[in-house]
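Regression report. Comparing outputs from two consecutive submissions.

Submission 1:
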Amino acid sequence: MKHQTFSVTGHGSFPLDMLRHDHCWPTTSEDVARINDSVERSIDLFTVQTISLTRQVQTKGHHPTSGRWQSFGWNVGQVVTR
C-alpha cells in the first residue's frame, strides 16, 4: 500500500463529500482547521485557499478525480505517491 499526497486549491465552502469520494483525509491539523473555517464561517468566494490531502492507494497511477473537484470549484495540484 502506498501513500499519496495532493493539494487542492479553491474558494468558498470545501466540498466535504470529496473526502469520502476520493478516500482521503486532511494531511495536517492546519488543513483540518482550513476545512472547518471554510464550512463553518462560509469564507467569502474570493478567498482562495490550498489544502493538503493524503490517502492510501494500491498503485502509483491512481489519481484523484480532478474533474469532480473542478465541478466544486477546486483544482487538484501536484500528486506525490510514496
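Submission 2:
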Amino acid sequence: MRQFGPLILSMVVLAACTAAGSSPVAPSPAASAPPATEPVDLTILAAASLRDALDAVSAAYASDHPTVTLTIATDSSAVLATQILEGAPADVFLSADETNPAKIVDGGLADGPAIRFAGNELTIVVPSGSSTVTTAADLAKPGVKVIAAGAEVPITKYASQVVDALAGLPGYPPDLAAAYAANVVSREDNVKAVVAKIELGEGDAAIVFATDATASGKVDRVDIPADAYVRATYAGVVIGGSDRPAEARAFMDWLSGGAGQAILAEFGFLPPGS
C-alpha cells in the first residue's frame, strides 16, 4: 500500500463499487481507452481547490471504468510537486497552476508534457455579514486582517498579480501592494485553509479561487474589478514512474475531454483555453 507524506491534508479513496446510484457520465470519444481487465489503483495528487470537484469526478470515472479505483490526495500544488520531486509515489499530478507541473517535466519525472485541463477566476471573500471590506480597495485599509497562503502556493502568486493590477487602477492607492502585504496576518498551507480562516472570522478578507468561495457557502464575496482580472490555469501531468502509465494517460484524457470538463464546469471551473 502506498504511503503519503505528512504534508498531504486529505485523501479520498473511491472504489468502483461506491459509484452505484451516481449518474453515469458518457466518456469523451477522444478519451476512450481499452478497459482494464484487472483492478487498477491510480494515485492522483491534486490541488486543494480541486477537492470537491474530484469527489464527483471519481464517482463518474468509476462508473465509466469499473475496474479502476482512484486514490486522491489533495494539498497545495507546491507541496505536492515537492513531494513528487522527492520520490513520493503517484500516477497523476493535477496542479492549480502551470509552474509546478513544469517542475515535474523539467525534472525528468513526467511521462509526456503537461496538459491544461481547467481554468478558474479569483474573488475576494469576507466573513458572512461583514462590512469591514466592501471593495477591493479596502484590502489596503489600515487594520484590515488579510488571510493569505504561503509564498509558493499558486493562489498567492495569482493574488499578487491581482494586487499589482489594482495598484495601477485610477482611484486606487499606488502603494496598495505594500499596504496589502502589511495587512497579511496569517499564511496558510493551501487555499482551502485560507477559506476556513475567513469562515471562522479569523480574518477580514482573502483573495481565493472563485470555486472555493462558491463551495464554502459561509462567506460573502467582494468582486475584483474587471481591469484587475487574473485568470488561473490548471495543468496536469502523468508521472513517469507510474506503474500504470496507460491508465494514467487515459484518466488525463478523460478529465480534459467532454466528460471531465462537464463535471468541472458544474463546480465553476472554466475550460482550459477560455
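Expected: both submissions complete independently.
Actual: both completed, but the second showed a warning that disappeared on reload.
Relevant detail on submission 2: Residues 1-32 have pLDDT under 50 and may be disordered.
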